[in-house]
Amino acid sequence: MDELFFLASKIGWAFLSPGNLLVFFLFFGVVFLVFNKISAAKKILIPTGLVAFVLMAYPISDYLMKPLEERFSTPSVMPEKIDGIIILGGGEDLKRSLSWKVAELGLGGDRYIGTASLALAYPNVPVIFTGGSGLVSLQNSEGEGALARQILTTIGIQESRLIIESKSRNTYENFKYTKVLLPKPQGTYLLVTSSFHMPRSVGVARAQGINVIPYPVDYRTNADELRIFDFDLFDHLKALEPAWREWVGLTVYYFTDKTANWFPKPGEIVEKKSQKVIPGFYSDKVNTFEP
Predict the structure, then answer these.
(1) DSSP code for 92
(2) Pairing of strands 127-130, 268-270
(3) Measured between alpha carbons, how far is 88 from 144 in angstroms, rounded to an integer?
(4) Beta strands in 50-198 (DSSP E)
């Protein structure tokens, strides 16, 4: 079932990606022109052109991304004790790393910066990385886990502190496979991932019975006063693509029972058996890690 879900998600995203959709509509519009279907071509090309122009001219993608990034914030007061630091894969550029035989970071590289900072603040807890290859064509590689080990040790984290999970291909599998590796299953763990990815990640962690304290990084939106007409399509797509993917992911995960809440928020706990959402403080307990 997990295999089917993974493949379906990849095929589905190929047709739901905003960038891909623009190209698809452009292609079909040109096809209608070639066959002299002028009226049909206009109905496709004019709206597509207008949407593309607006996306290029102004960062409207921020309005889709910002609710995701604002859902969870960095703790105003960091916990005195935790049982580990969990970093989700996604900050690596697997294709380029394999191509050039060097560890390359992608847009989510801030996940490693945040993890390095926490590792210094909590020097006696394990650092748990979870992530394999999210690419269908690269399932036989060593995946993100091998890259993560190299990057984490390079930035100064002792290898003896690392717990590496490298089988997972999506957020659900991240926590499914990590759960059995946790040194304290009922402990409390700081969770590091991109801010827009945090709601879905927290929702899955709660459904798996893993107690996490969100530590979001890798913000993609602009402050209101910096949101201007700048005609930078590439920069705007860097927010639009992951934001739309997250909203789709939140919806799919909710209806496939991988989370108990469509849009998880702070101050909720989940009963493991029924996955019923209960108001309350989820991360109000901290345990001591014993090496």
Answers:
(1) B
(2) unpaired
(3) 10
(4) 84-88, 127-130, 162-165, 188-194
**What's the CA gap between 185 and 191, in Å, rounded?**
15
- End-to-end Cα, the chain, rounded Å: 37
Q: What's the fold here for domain 74-219+264-279? A: Rossmann fold (3.40.50)
Provide the 8-state DSSP code for 140: T
CA distance 178 to 171: 11
153, 118 contact by CB (below 8 A): no
- pLDDT tens profile 88-133: 998 888 888 888 888 889 889 999 999 999 999 999 999 999 988 6
Residue linked to tokens 């717990």: 163
Structure tokens at 54: 């607006």
Two structure tokens written together for 184: 């304290």
Q: Which two tokens stand for residue 23?
A: 């190209």
Between 271 and 266, where is the model more confident?
266
Closest among 170, 179, 209, 175 to 4, alpha carbons compared: 170
Q: What are phi and psi of 87, to 5 degrees?
A: -115, 125
Share of the chain above pLDDT 70, in %: 88
The domain limits of the chain are 2-57, 74-219+264-279
By CB atoms closer than 10 A (0-12, 13-18, 19+), residue 159 is exposed
pLDDT digits (tens, 9 = 90+) for 183-217: 999 999 999 999 999 999 999 999 999 999 999 99
Instruction: Map tokens 């979870």 to a residue.
Output: 130
Q: Burial of 37 by CB count in 10 Å (0-12 exposed, 13-18 middle, 19+ buried)?
A: middle
Residue 44 tokens, joined:
């496709």
User: 119 is written with which tokens?
Assistant: 């590792």
